[in-house]
Amino acid sequence: SRPATLGSQPPGFAGMPHRLETFHSVAEGYRGEVLIRWGDSLGGQPPTRFPISSEEQRDRFGYNNDFIAYSPLDQQAANGTEHRASNNSQHGLLSINHENCYPHLMFPGFKNRFDAEGLTNDEQVKSSIYSVGHSVIEVEKINNQWRVIDNSPYQRRITPFTAIEITGPAAGSERLKTSKENTGRQVLGTLGNCAGGKTPWGTVLIAEENFSEFFGLDPAHIANIPDRELTNHRRFAVEEEGGFWARVDPRFDVTNEPHEMNRFGWMVEYNPYDPDSIPQKRTALGRFEHEGATLVCKEGQPVVAYSGDDAEHQYLYRFVSEKAYREGDHQHNQYLLESGTLYCAVFNEDGTGQWLPLLYGQGPLTAENGFYNQADVLIDTRLAAQLLGATKMDRPEDVETNPHTDRTYVALTKNKHKLSANAANPKVQNPAGHIVEILPPGVDGQRDHSQHYFSWDLLLLGGSDQTGAKPQGLYGGQLEEGGWFANPDNIAFDARGRLWIASDGCQSFGFADGLWCTATVGEERAKPRHFFSCPTGAELCGPEFTPDGKTLFAAVQHPATDYQSRYDQPSTRWPDFDAAIPPRPSIVAITKDNGGLIGD
Ligand code: FEO
Ligand code: CA
Ligand code: CA
Ligand code: CA
């Protein structure tokens, strides 16, 4: 009965009230079934015992699942030929990030979450190293029920010890060489794998976000670090107390290997269909605390990748490829992210904005400011963007483009440490976060993301009337009970153009993190409804739809991270609820009872 504006479909389910429970819940008419859990084999079999040994963990599903990519499989794919045109929604691969590890919930003996420096047992340290990175599993839906396929030829773990190539303009830089690796083109592992992205040529992008938390700095040997690298490392807040992994691998102490940390903070691209493919760090997309990178690809036009730097007062970026995207030409497309130009965003007070290029030799990006080549600009992306005058943001998380309207959305999770506001980050104290809408030039459905100017608007602010965080009128009317949330993090669009928002931090507002859904245009713009609620202590990550829109995969990350929780006294033992099994980060497959479209 509503006018059919592009992407204006509102959610059709009844929103849930806020919850705070030991278990997860999903809106009426849907079910959310646990698919795979931390410590399971990549075929879905449980571990033999807890705590999990380093030898077992090396090949098993990792901790703190975050980003999820669904890649369809079909008969041809199984034969190793062509798979990329498929939209098979019953059978595919799930590529899943494992952002970090929480030793106090993985091993006995810790006082609390902030006691991780007490990790002095080498076996536990190794197990924790193997628990992060990335997993690929094969999944299949039979009778509206998903299962993990055992002994899949595609299954794969990527860990901090996996061989990875460094490509693009910074590859080979002196600043990427170490005492163990003198080409600056190879690195062991990927770290802090938070969100990511997918390409239409079948590869998966995984982001390196909070990589510095795995490194430490030994104050006794600080003189070993060249001044420029010390400044660079401190820009990522590397801590003297951090770096317990250096106990078993000295490269994680930056006073030992001053360049090792420069080899992290990139976007990584790999082909999930080829379990032997070597992942590649794409330095053209810059080095910062990448939340993810999401693409806009149009035939014959450059590929545009949006990426947030998730730290307080940091910036939003856009990469524009040098070469054009050619649909179906995998040989050509697989190198598109190797060369192009990186831009940082300026949000003007009047609702307009610009993208400023980060190019060596232009403006302040010269030797005078410590930039001697383009590799320096990319390694020190944060400094370059600051010098160019990019707009300081309230922690840019996931960025997604609505396929119906071609408008782009940026989740800004929060920023408690501000002394002033700007129009795109309008709250001086912003504990609840907000979402910004970017409108590249053009009309809905046909916008040009490679132009260097745009207009922007606020979609919504986190918080509620009750907390005083919601300005009048922004939501366009009253929200239903349970309809407000805080701290948007991962976002996704469904087949009807509805925006799905996963939260990370609602528990400080008195209710569990979860998933909300809203239209972004039309009468129901910015009127979220509550769809999924996490067990206590968890944040929600992932949200990833199958191409048919009938399954939504969600990642429940760090259940039981409430302040006092620890291994032998967690606030929930989700999802096993067995006194012998600690809480386990897990993937949930959500389907509709009647097999229909999620959200209708
Ligand atoms: Fe790992 Fe920005 O969330
Ligand atoms: Ca995130
Ligand atoms: Ca997303
Ligand atoms: Ca998060």
Write up this protein:
The chain is mainly β. The chain has one domain: Neuraminidase, CATH 2.120.10. It has helices at residues 54-59, 75-78, 103-106, 122-130, 227-235, 330-333, 374-379, 381-388, and strands at residues 25-26, 30-37, 65-72, 91-98, 133-142, 145-148, 156-158, 163-167, 186-188, 193-198, 204-208, 267-270, 280-282, 294-296, 302-308, 316-324, 340-347, 352-357, 396-401, 408-412, 434-439, 442-443, 446-447, 453-461, 488-493, 499-503, 514-518, 529-533, 539-545, 551-557, 586-592. Strand 5 and strand 6 (145-148) form a beta hairpin. The radius of gyration is 23 Å and the shape is globular. The two termini are 14 Å apart. One calcium ion binds next to loops.
Keyword list:
single chain, Neuraminidase, binds calcium ion, binds MU-OXO-diiron, 600 residues, six-stranded mixed sheet, mainly beta, nine-stranded antiparallel sheet
Structural class: mainly beta
Numbering strands along the chain, what is their spatial order in the largest sheet?
A: 14-15-16-17-18-24-21-20-19
Indicate the CATH architecture.
6 Propeller
Strand content: 25-35%
**Helical coverage, percent range:** under 10%
N- to C-terminal separation?
14 Å
How many domains, as an integer?
1
At the fold tier of CATH, the topology name is Neuraminidase
Question: CATH homologous superfamily?
Answer: TolB, C-terminal domain
Report the top-level CATH class: Mainly Beta
Number of strand elements: 31
Q: Low-confidence parts lasting 5 or more residues at pLDDT below 50?
A: 77-82
Sheet with the most strands, sense and barrel status = 9 strands, antiparallel
* Mean pLDDT reading: 93
Bound molecules: MU-OXO-diiron, calcium ion
Q: How would the global form be characterised?
A: globular
Tally of individual helices: 8
Q: Radius of gyration, Cα only, in angstroms? A: 23 Å
